[in-house]
Design brief:
about 60 residues, alpha+beta, two-stranded antiparallel ribbon, about 20% helix, extended
Length: about 60
């Protein structure tokens, strides 16, 4: 039998960053035996970009 270790990271987030379902309620998921609110990876990346002051966009139009 193999052994493994589970580590859980908790972080406080603003209510606007919560991942919501079709009815507008925050999604939840089990983590380390406790039901926690789900936060999308996309919202975490956006918050990090804003915190670091990274403001860039990609031009998607094709030049002739």
């Amino acid at each position: 039998m193999s052994e493994f270790e589970v580590r859980c990271l908790t972080q406080s987030v603003a209510p606007s960053c919560l991942n919501r379902d079709g009815t507008g309620l925050p999604k939840d998921c089990p983590s380390c035996g406790v039901c926690r609110t789900g936060v999308s990876g996309q919202s975490l990346k956006r918050a990090l970009r804003e915190r670091l002051g990274i403001h860039r966009s990609l031009e998607t139009t094709k030049e002739d």
